[in-house]
Design brief:
The complex is a heterodimer of chains A (329) and B (334).
Chain A: E1 3-16, E2 19-32, E3 36-40, H1 47-54, E4 62-71, E5 74-75, H2 81-90, E6 92-95, H3 99-102, H4 109-120, H5 128-145, H6 151-154, H7 164-176, E7 182-186, H8 194-211, E8 214-218, H9 222-228, E9 231-236, E10 239-245, H10 246-251, H11 256-264, E11 312-313, E12 319-320
Parallel strand pairs in A: 3-8, 3-9, 6-7, 7-8
Antiparallel strand pairs in A: 1-2, 1-4, 4-5, 9-10, 10-12, 11-12
Chain B: E1 2-14, H1 19-23, E2 30-42, E3 46-50, H2 57-64, E4 72-77, E5 80-81, H3 87-94, E6 97-100, H4 114-124, H5 130-143, H6 160-172, E7 178-182, H7 190-207, E8 210-215, H8 218-224, E9 227-232, E10 235-241, H9 242-247, H10 252-260, E11 309-313, E12 316-319, H11 329-332
Parallel strand pairs in B: 3-8, 3-9, 6-7, 7-8
Antiparallel strand pairs in B: 1-2, 1-4, 4-5, 9-10, 10-12, 11-12
Helix pairs in contact in B: 4-5, 4-6, 5-6, 6-7
The complex binds adenosine-5'-triphosphate (ATP), adenosine-5'-diphosphate (ADP), iron/sulfur cluster (SF4) (2 copies) and magnesium ion (2 copies).
């Protein structure tokens, strides 16, 4: 498989009155064509900022201060805002965590879908009447694809007239309208009920298989990753701490944080046995010392861990940011 | 012995009409959020209440405590008919029945310190005041894992998990026997969620508490409940011991709910049922069996006739017309 997206050593900072927040610090990642990468981590670990940075959507006081982003061989950081607009929507599309605020409340669903098509789809006919018909047909097709019943009449409705699950599906339809090579889905199901979540995830997997699209699936649910992703990367306090094939990472986690996360998930099979939660809380991202960020919560921590820790090899196709990997073999 | 007995409980919310709606002769909208629910909770056990958003879980929890007045039905707590109590008697029994809320941000008064928030029930029930109240408050806060030097701070100075600890302390301070835990961990990250679950289970053990534990997370419910009740559009569709319901679900809704949960670890042994469509609007619930619009097993009678609740095993009940056929959606699916 050829690499579609390659990010190296990305850093994104927000300047706040109280100081500099390094929301993303030295993140490197790769996504191959057609692959599904799961991105997990607790809230505030930098998942959304990482992918907003890749999309060129970080606004002041936020700034990408370091790193390279190559997509399909092109250097995204070197692009003008104009060129980036072309990439967004046509090559890479992102669905936002909160569908209600991401959709425009004043426009119908049909108008919002048409807007994307007009901006990016060069295959539309040029004659006015034929163009209108073609746009309408594509819109109906896209809504049908994401399983909205009677798409014809639904096109004239506004976002608030849809349920949460339907709004997520509509956002996916808009994201897919131009058949992007990469779909970034930021917590597409966090706000949804489990039966609706299953529908939306199945939909993404289905379309991915049919269109050969790559997907970055951001979630905090390891179960979702286990079922839908080829590879997974785990983020903690602005950094990637573990990365590898999903089955390996979930079946045999190497980083103490990943291990703690998995041990924290209550499971019916563990009834009567005590949970072993990770103690303490996520550190404040402001003014972090250059040392292992999991140190204060880590059961394996040693004084020697108080240094900056790089990603180290943790087996075939796997890496983890820990100095004591021999303890977790 | 059951500590709490709920019989045929219903709660209706009446929507207000705008002036224009009234002038044009619009009818009042009525949401039957909880409909004819009967259940019991034994002393010392955890009854897990599970269901999707909007199905009426919180409404049921609040109606049991009469934080929302039930429209019909009866709630008995330790032999006392709570639904018949006068306001002073109700206040007295509330000392023994408490609630922990889902949203640790919204449920704490931002203008009061933690000591004031947690101490309020002591004053309210005339349990203690002054130095004595402060001593009790400090002790309870310590027990839930907060530092004594934090007790004069305000809620916004705490993280989500810490705020949930404050909510737990407030519920515990009057020394209750029964607590409705309304999604106490749903807003928290996994690692913090595990800390709070561990704390709630320790406290239950230590103080001999009884919980009605509300959640939409089947893993959480399966981990900490003794018995489970499954709710759909205001009704209980299945109840039973946790092992029977999770390992041998009999209602098609429970079966689809369980199959929708993504699993960690080995590949799914059983097939998956894909429910079609969204939850129907509670303003206009389906006739007959309320699940018939999404049920893969629905037959014509399901549209007209409400199914009765029947025993399907030891203490295991479900309400469905096709129970006797012993169908299992999970086995049918590939
Ligand atoms: N104060 C109210 N006035 C009118 N309708 C209400 C009120 N509170 C709740 N409802 C309606 O009653 C139904 C049940 O709501 P409830 O909050 O009990 O659901 P829930 O199962 O707790 O949902 P969630 O999982 O989202 O917390 C919903 O349709 C809701 O919109
Ligand atoms: N617009 C912003 N201004 C300042 N800080 C921000 C902004 N957006 C995100 N952050 C900070 O960046 C960090 C990572 O956030 P985010 O990527 O949204 O986390 P996640 O998506 O993993 O929950 C957090 O500490 C957050 O507070
Ligand atoms: S480097 Fe040390 S403190 Fe950090 S995760 Fe590894 S063992 Fe724990
Ligand atoms: S009564 Fe009919 S519609 Fe309802 S759950 Fe049973 S089979 Fe499905
Ligand atoms: Mg996010
Ligand atoms: Mg609720």
């Amino acid at each position: 498989m050829t690499v579609l997206l390659e990010v190296t050593n990305l850093r994104t900072e927000f300047s706040a009155r109280a100081g500099l927040v390094r929301a993303v610090d030295g993140v490197s990642l790769q996504i191959s064509r057609g692959e599904c990468l799961g991105v997990v981590g607790e809230s505030g670990s930098g998942k959304s900022v990482t992918f907003s940075s890749i999309m060129g959507l970080v606004r002041p006081p936020g700034r990408v201060t370091q790193g390279t982003i190559f997509f399909d061989g092109r250097d995204l950081r070197g692009m003008s805002p104009e060129e980036m607009r072309g990439v967004r929507g046509r090559d890479i599309a992102m669905t936002m965590q909160d569908a209600l605020t991401a959709l425009n409340p004043a426009l119908t669903i049909g108008e919002q879908l048409a807007e994307v098509l007009v901006a990016h789809d060069e295959t539309l006919p040029t004659g006015r009447a034929a163009r209108r018909v073609a746009i309408k047909d594509r819109c109906v097709e896209m809504l049908g694809l994401v399983g909205i019943p009677s798409p014809d009449s639904r096109l004239r409705q506004y976002p608030h007239e849809f349920s949460g699950g339907m709004r997520q599906r509509i956002m996916i339809a808009i994201a897919l309208a131009c058949r992007p090579k990469l779909l970034i889905a930021d917590e597409p199901t966090t706000a949804l009920d489990v039966t609706i979540q299953a529908q939306v995830l199945e939909l993404i997997s289905d379309i991915r298989a049919r269109m050969g699209m790559a997907v970055a699936l951001i979630t905090h649910d390891l179960g979702v990753v286990a079922e839908h992703c080829d590879r997974v990367m785990v983020m903690y306090a602005g950094q990637v701490v573990e990365e590898g094939p999903t089955e390996d990472v979930i079946g045999h986690p190497r980083h103490p944080y990943t291990r703690g996360l998995l041990a924290s998930i209550p499971r019916p099979a563990m009834r009567g046995q005590p949970l072993t939660p990770i103690k303490g809380q996520v550190p404040n991202l402001m003014g972090l010392a250059p040392q292992c960020r999991f140190h204060s919560r880590c059961p394996l921590a040693e004084p020697s861990c108080l240094v900056e820790v790089p990603m180290l090899s943790a087996g075939p196709g796997r890496r983890a940011r820990c100095l004591r990997l021999e303890e977790t073999v | 012995m059951s500590l709490l007995q709920v019989t045929n409980l219903s709660k209706q919310y009446e929507g207000r009409l705008s002036l224009a709606q009234r002038l044009t002769g619009g009818r009042k909208t009525v949401v039957r959020a909880v409909s004819d629910v009967s259940l019991h909770v034994n002393k010392g056990e955890v009854l897990g209440l599970i269901g999707e958003s909007g199905c009426g879980k919180s409404t049921l929890g609040r109606a049991i405590l009469r934080l929302h007045e039930p429209t019909e039905g009866k709630v008995e707590f330790d032999g006392t008919d709570v639904t018949a109590l006068s306001p002073p008697a109700l206040k007295a029994i509330r000392r023994r029945m408490q609630i922990i809320f889902q949203d640790p941000y919204a449920s704490l008064n931002p203008r009061r310190t933690v000591a004031e928030i947690v101490g309020l029930p002591l004053a309210l029930h005339g349990i203690a005041s002054g130095e004595e109240a402060r001593a009790i408050t400090t002790q309870v806060l310590k027990r839930v894992g907060l530092q004594p030097d934090q007790i004069d701070r305000y809620p916004h100075q705490f993280s989500g998990g810490q705020r949930q600890r404050i909510g737990i302390a407030r519920a515990l301070v009057s020394n209750p026997e029964f607590i409705v835990c309304d999604e106490p961990v749903s807003a928290l990250d996994v690692s913090i969620q595990a800390q709070i679950i561990a704390l709630l289970l320790e406290l239950k053990q230590e103080l001999g508490l009884t919980y009605l534990f509300i959640s939409h997370d089947i893993s959480v419910i399966g981990y900490l409940s003794d018995r489970v009740a499954v709710m759909y559009l205001g009704e209980i569709v299945e109840t039973g011991p946790v092992a029977s319901v999770l390992d041998n679900p009999r209602h098609p809704y429970t079966q689809s709910l369980l199959s929708a949960v993504p699993e960690i670890g080995a590949k799914r042994a059983k097939g998956r049922v894909r429910l079609q469509g969204d939850l129907p609007s509670p303003l206009n619930p389906p006739s007959g069996c309320k699940f018939h619009t999404r049920c893969p097993l629905a037959i014509p009678i399901c549209q007209t006739l409400v199914p009765l609740t029947q025993a399907v095993g030891a203490e295991h009940h479900a309400a469905c017309h096709r129970l006797h056929e012993g169908l299992n959606l999970l086995e049918g699916a590939q």
